[in-house]
């Protein structure tokens, strides 16, 4: 069991990041959440009917507003955020409101009296969310967004002006600021996914707004593409943290006999991986893309090869715990003699983690910046 997290004053109970970890030094809410809640209270804003929350990472706002609001909609391009919010709602017994999780691509329908946003890290996702909100909300509807002062630049405010409407900000409080924007752009069309090519591999890629490697091939993925094995004995290959699915495309081309499962926690990534498999591999391809938290729910010993270019941040926090979870999950689902191939920045020290888990690790390739490591599951290794 994880140690108890600090109490989140607005709900008088602890709030946890997800997954819950022993001695987590990162907090599940920030000063922007507190500023938004304080503003609502001071201004006596109407939250009795329907409230939409965008990018509420671990449910701080959802838990705080739950009992005061008839309808809450939690909107995020993150399955992990949904899991964390569900967990925190359950812990704080926040179960009274008519509550729903929406991802960013599904239709948003309703008549919210208040829309609150936490500033997302990606400007492309921000733009996309502003444009979608502006289509749905009535003219002059107010959007209130909280963000860290150091992340609110004049270019950020220009995006609100351009894609939503007239915008101003509050004074700073605990290094956070509120952005108020008034809808004046109700007729916008949402942009299509960005397209780019990988001529060396003859791939045409499409990326939805929140997908890693926005407009060009990631340099780590470029190196990894050269080291994906072609092996007729492989039956099941997992692309863990698939993003736009570029590694799955190459794995599928080289291994037409194998089933490829592309996994990501971002619904926009999974939708992009679907689009890219359909466009590059033809209609009868063997790639299945799934929204999932790492490999939870996968059967033990069911996979022959896991390919992984792990993330090194969660929301805005730099952390290696997701990479660790990915390696542990890979070890669990791999069949005996199954292989995990990982690419990472040299300085991240993944070989130490892999050695601890798998007993032995080989270097497949390296350059000045990245290293590709391979670990094999031995029947006698520790764990499982
Ligand atoms: C560095 S990117 C790699 C993307 C792609 N494989 C590539 O090489 O271009 C890492 C990916 O891991 C995904 N991710 C982060 N946390 C995850 C989790 N808990 N479960 C599954 N995927 C996750 C991110 O959404 C992101 O798409």
The figure for the number of domains is 2
Instruction: Tell me about the largest β-sheet.
Output: 7 strands, mixed
CATH H level of the largest domain: which superfamily?
Vaccinia Virus protein VP39
- Using only C-alpha atoms, the radius of gyration works out to 22 Å
| CATH third-tier fold name of the largest domain | Rossmann fold
Number of helices: 10
The strand count comes to 20
Poorly predicted runs of 5 or more residues:
none
Based on the coordinates given, report the CATH architecture of the largest domain.
3-Layer(aba) Sandwich
What does this structure look like?
The chain has 384 residues and is an alpha/beta fold. The chain has 2 domains: 7-182, Vaccinia Virus protein VP39 (Rossmann fold), CATH 3.40.50; 194-376, Vaccinia Virus protein VP39 (Rossmann fold). The chain has 10 helices and 20 strands. It has helices at residues 31-43, 60-65, 79-91, 123-136, 154-163, 219-225, 246-254, 267-281, 321-333, 350-358, and strands at residues 7-8, 13-14, 50-54, 71-75, 98-102, 114-118, 142-148, 167-169, 176-182, 194-198, 203-207, 236-240, 259-264, 287-291, 303-308, 313-314, 317-318, 334-345, 361-366, 370-376. The strands form 5 sheets. Strands 5-4-3-6-7-9-8 form a 7-stranded mixed sheet, with helices on both faces. A 7-stranded mixed sheet has the order 14-13-12-15-18-20-19. A hairpin with a 6-residue loop joins β8 and β9 (176-182). α7 runs parallel beside α8 and α9 (321-333) packs parallel to α10 (350-358). The radius of gyration is 22 Å and the shape is globular. The mean pLDDT is 94. The protein binds S-adenosylmethionine (SAM). S-adenosylmethionine is lined by residues 80, 212-213, 218, 221, 241-243, 246-247, 263-266, 269, 293-294, 309, 311, 322. S-adenosylmethionine binds next to α7 and β13.
């Amino acid at each position: 069991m994880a140690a108890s997290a600090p109490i989140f004053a607005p709900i008088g109970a602890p709030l946890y990041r997800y997954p819950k970890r022993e001695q987590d030094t990162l907090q599940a809410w920030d000063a922007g959440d507190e500023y938004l809640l304080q503003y609502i209270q001071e201004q006596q804003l109407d939250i009795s009917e329907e409230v939409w929350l965008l990018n509420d990472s671990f449910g701080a706002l959802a838990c705080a507003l739950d009992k005061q609001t008839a309808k809450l909609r939690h909107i995020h391009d993150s399955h992990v955020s949904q899991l964390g919010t569900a967990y925190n709602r359950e812990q704080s017994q926040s179960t009274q409101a008519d509550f729903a999780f929406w991802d960013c691509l599904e239709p948003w329908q309703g008549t919210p009296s208040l829309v609150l946003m936490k500033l997302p890290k990606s400007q492309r996702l921000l733009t996309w969310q502003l444009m979608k909100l502006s289509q749905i909300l009535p003219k002059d509807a107010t959007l209130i967004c909280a963000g860290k002062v150091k992340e609110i630049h004049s270019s950020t405010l220009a995006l609100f002006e351009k894609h939503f409407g007239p915008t101003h900000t509050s004074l700073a409080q605990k290094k956070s600021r509120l952005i108020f924007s008034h809808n004046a752009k109700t007729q916008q069309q949402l942009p299509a996914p960005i397209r780019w090519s990988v001529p060396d591999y003859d791939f045409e890629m499409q990326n939805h707004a929140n997908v890693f490697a926005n407009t060009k091939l990631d340099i780590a993925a470029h190196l990894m593409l050269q080291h994906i094995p072609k092996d007729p004995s492989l039956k099941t290959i997992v692309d863990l943290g698939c993003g736009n699915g570029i590694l799955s495309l190459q794995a599928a081309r080289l291994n037409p006999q194998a089933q490829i499962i592309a996994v990501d926690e971002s619904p926009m990534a999974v939708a992009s991986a679907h689009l890219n498999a359909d466009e590059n591999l033809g209609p009868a391809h063997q790639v299945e893309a799934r929204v999932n938290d790492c490999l939870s729910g996968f059967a033990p010993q069911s996979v022959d090869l896991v390919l992984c270019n792990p993330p090194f941040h969660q929301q805005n926090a730099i952390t290696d715990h997701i990479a660790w979870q990915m390696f542990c999950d890979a070890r669990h689902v791999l069949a005996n003699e199954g292989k995990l191939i990982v690419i990472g920045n040299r300085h991240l020290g993944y070989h130490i983690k892999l050695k601890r888990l798998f007993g032995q690790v080989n270097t497949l390739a390296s350059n000045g910046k990245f290293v590709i490591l391979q670990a094999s599951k031995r029947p006698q290794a520790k764990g499982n």
